[in-house]
């Protein structure tokens, strides 16, 4: 079947994996990657697929209504996979308004234009919104986030994502816009911007710099290999039920400090350093404001209903990730020069 699909934020970490999967797996689909190329967007993430005949890149901002309108007119999309966002919690603490603008207003603009173009024929249309488990707030020692868990966002980032989720559902209920949301746990893998814990730690260990661990390192995250998230998005986009939410996660909880210790052991092995060398770089620093204690996803619905499951064990995925960063020194150098240095100094 021929389709015309808009993927927003396709030059970012997860978006680039989704674009790669769709353009290679579905040669009949026209895939338009719309990205503003903020500090987090990088066309180097897509060098291997940029010349494929079914791939088109459009530079633009999702908050620019006239531009989005023109884009829908030009490509007559029947599907949207919306990933574009400001995505880093620490930056949202520094500058909340940027998050409200892109994540809330940007999502509303996309919904509004999709509705304008689809309102006379909603058949075979889909607005797929990619969201986060952080909308559910913070867990104690026990329990999991389910699709029915009440929203309780606590950072400006998660509040903006929660708001965007609500707008998606409002457009579904009010205007019958065909929509699906997925809420995923922490991703890791190649092309991850080194402001986030895992790539930041790999970069710093490689350069013998301190590895900052917030607070006591006891916060827990549930890690999923980014390619498995992209596979889940593919599954939900094609088989998910309209109006539903699907939680995506790897049943893979780690305390930050245990994860960093494991990463240090892998880095020692890969760099040929005596065991224990990298761990000496671990440095406890001031905690994140409002730091959520624990996230853990129950992905049973996605597994039972649509048959998706993660493909990789964590250690294997982490080794692959480290291998990618060690083999892609030039990519790391490009993204850590310039503004990154300024951000790093302000943050740490
Ligand atoms: P990212 O920061 O790596 O990429 C975001 C992309 O969006 C970048 O390419 C950036 O240029 C683009 N962008 C930002 N503002 C834009 C705008 N106004 N107009 C157009 N493009 C813009 O983020 P990511 O980690 O790949 O996350 C992608 C999506 O997945 C986000 O919606 C995020 O909330 C969600 N998510 C992320 C994770 C995770 O662990 N990283 C987990 C669950 C959900
Ligand atoms: O849960 C999904 C979310 O995961 C996504 O929605 C976000 O876009 C994504 O950034 C991620 O958010 P986190 O805040 O959990 O990820 P981050 O990599 O920033 O931090 C992971 C944990 O590590 C968190 O408990 C904070 C801690 N941390 C982070 C950094 C950057 C440190 O201890 N030191 C650090 O330097």
Provide a descriptive summary of the structure in words.
- By secondary structure, this protein is of the alpha/beta class.
- The protein has a domain at 3-191 and 223-253 and 291-312: Rossmann fold.
- The protein has helices at 13-25, 65-75, 89-94, 96-118, 156-175, 197-206, 226-239, 256-271, 300-306, 314-327, 329-335, 339-347; strands at 3-8, 29-35, 55-59, 79-82, 126-132, 179-184, 186-188, 211-214, 220-225, 245-248, 253-255, 282-285.
- It has a 7-stranded parallel β-sheet, with helices on both faces. The protein has a 3-stranded mixed β-sheet with strand order 7-9-11.
- α1 (13-25) links the parallel β1 and β2 (29-35).
- α1 (13-25) packs across α7, α4 (96-118) packs parallel to α5 and α8 (256-271) crosses α10.
- The chain is globular and about 65 Å long.
- 44% of the residues are buried.
- Bound molecules: nicotinamide-adenine-dinucleotide and 2'deoxy-thymidine-5'-diphospho-alpha-D-glucose (DAU).
- Nicotinamide-adenine-dinucleotide binds next to α1, α4, β5 and β7.
Order of helices and strands: EHEEHEHHEHEEHEEHEEHEHHHH
Proportion of residues in helical segments: 40-55%
Rg, Å, rounded: 20 Å
The strand line-up of the biggest sheet is 3-2-1-4-5-6-10
Q: Could you report the average pLDDT, rounded to the nearest whole number?
A: 98
CATH topology type of the domain at 3-191 and 223-253 and 291-312? Rossmann fold
Query: What is the CATH architecture annotation of the domain at 3-191 and 223-253 and 291-312?
Result: 3-Layer(aba) Sandwich
Q: Which CATH class of the domain at 3-191 and 223-253 and 291-312? A: Alpha Beta
Ends: how far apart?
A: 50 Å
Main beta sheet: 7 strands, parallel
Overall strand count: 12
Low-confidence stretches: none
Q: What share of the residues does DSSP label as strand, in percent?
A: 15-25%
Bound molecules: nicotinamide-adenine-dinucleotide, 2'deoxy-thymidine-5'-diphospho-alpha-D-glucose
**Secondary-structure-derived class:** alpha/beta
DSSP helical segment count: 12
Apparent shape: globular
